[in-house]
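One such shown below:
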Amino acid sequence: MTESCRPPALLNTHIRTHPNPSAPALLCLHGHPGSGACMDVFTERLSQRFTTVSPDLRGYGQSKARAPFAMTDHLSDLEALLEAHGIDEFMILGWSLGGILAMELAMRHPSRVKGLILVATSAHPWGDHPRTGWIDDVLTGITSLINLVVPGWQWNIERLGKRSLLRYLIQKHTPDTYRYLARYAVPAFLQTSRFANRALGDALRSRYNRLGDLEQIDCPSLLLAGACDRHITAASSLETADSLKDCESKVYEKTAHLFPWEIPNAVLLDIEDWLDATGLTPKA
C-alpha cells in the first residue's frame, strides 16, 4: 500500500512510500519534469524487495518552491529527508535528473549508498535533440490534451502523437505507453515550477561533467539506456558506465528517454536479475 506523507515542515517535501518492514530502503528519484508518482513504474514491483521512498524534488509535484534554488539544494533536501526518516543505508534508483542526483549522493555518502540503478542518465549528459518549432509544440499540446481525455486512443497516436515531440521521447507508440503519459507525464509537466526549470537550465549551461569524480563510487551499479534517446544519448550513458568502477550496462533497442514506460516488464526483469546476481536484496 502506498502512503503519502511529509517529513518535518522545514523540508516541504512530498513523499510517496511503499513500506516493507525489515526490507532495505530504495530511494527513487524522478527526472525533469517529473514527480515521485512517475516512479510508480518501478516501485509497484520493487516494493516487494524494498521500502521505497519516492519524493517530489523541490519545485516538482507537490513539493513547492517559492524562490530560486540551485541543483545542489536537491541534495541538501534529500539528506534532510533521509535524516528525518532515520534511513542510514540505502540504494538509489534515479531516472534522468534523478540519476545525476543519485551519483552525487553516492559521492557524498559512499559508505551509506549500497547500490545504484541509473536510468537514462549520465555524469556528463549530452544530447542530439533536433531543433523544433511552434508546430511541434502545438501538436504536442493537442496530443497530450486528447490523451488525457481518452488515454491510449489509437487515432490520436497515429494522427498526432507520432508527429508531435513525443517522437523524440518514445519510440514505441503503444496505447500502454500513452496511458503512462496521461497518468504521470502530463500532471508532472504542469506541476513543474519555473524555479525547477531555471535550476536545471543553469546546471546545463555550466557544462556539468563529473566523469572524473566517479572513482569515488565503490558500490555496484546498473546503468540502463534507450538506444534512440535524444535527450541523454546512449553514448553519453555508456561513457558514465565505463567510468564507474563496478557497473553493468544495457541499451534497449528502439526505445528512447522514457523507455521504462515503453518496455516496463523488460526493464524490471533486468533490474531484478541484477539485484539477484549482486545479492543486494533477497528474491521477492
In short: DSSP finds ten helices and eight strands in the chain. The chain has two domains: 3-129+193-278, 134-188.
